[in-house]
Description:
Strand 1 (71-75) and strand 2 (81-85) form a beta hairpin. The protein has helices at residues 3-10, 12-39, and strands spanning 71-75, 81-85. By secondary structure, it is α+β, with helices and mostly antiparallel strands. The chain is built from two helices and two strands; from the N terminus they run H-H-E-E. It is 41% helix and 11% strand.
Amino acid sequence: MSNSAWTWLGKENNRSALILVGSALAAVASAAWAIYTYERPAHSRPLQADSPAEPVPAQPVQTAIAENGGIAINADGNASVSVHQTKP
């Protein structure tokens, strides 16, 4: 910063004015954010789809078989998951 800026900041009245202005800006920003989050809460408005949801076709069940102490994870189209571990 230039020497004149330090001189200006060195005066108590100027620092007090900056504190007042900065505090006012912070208060306005906080109030604006509070109003925004109060007026538009994310959980109260469901997402709107462009078109109605179409049913997801059933996926064939795929089964994995574990051997020699391995772990097999099986999942089907209904989001069911099973984990199987074999003994070595």
